Amino acid sequence: MNDTFAEAVEVIHACKGRVVISGIGKSAIIAQKIVATLNSTGTPSIFLHAADAIHGDLGMMQTNDIAVLISKSGESAEIKVLVPLIKNFGNTLIALSGNEHSFLVKEADYFINCTVETEACPNNLAPTSSTTAQLVMGDALAVCLLKLKGFTPGDFARFHPGGALGKQLYLKVHELAVVNQ
Fold this sequence. Notes:
Layout: H1 3-13, E1 19-23, H2 26-40, E2 45-49, H3 50-53, E3 66-71, H4 77-89, E4 92-97, H5 103-107, E5 110-113, H6 129-149, H7 153-159, H8 163-170, H9 173-176
Helix pairs in contact: 1-6, 2-6, 7-8
């Protein structure tokens, strides 16, 4: 992590809109998980699949939104089409990429480096280490943002009332007690 990471956190923290996160392939799956984490920790976010974006879904981008594009290579065809469209709208663009010399990174306002030397795949092909790096950086963004917001367990409970986490935060002993009549 470097100063650019810290600057990206500050820009997202000051965002008046939502964080729109996009990717293609395995990076799109990572984007969906990051969106879920940001939403449950108080940063309004939506997922926008890069392929769907260039076929009409770009209409979900609003003026005050920040775009985060995730791509290992930063050179995918869909990313290369999407980047200028986002830039033409005037939205801030943050790149999470493993290629600091890529088209995506050169066009981005901020670059979060997700470079890995090799994939864990024995053929160095399947996205394994690279998707882990993307996920780590997404989680790091979320944790920094929740700290800046002063996000509390009570805030978390409001956004995550279901499941074991929600019950742990919401239920009180008197709510669990069975009353004999």
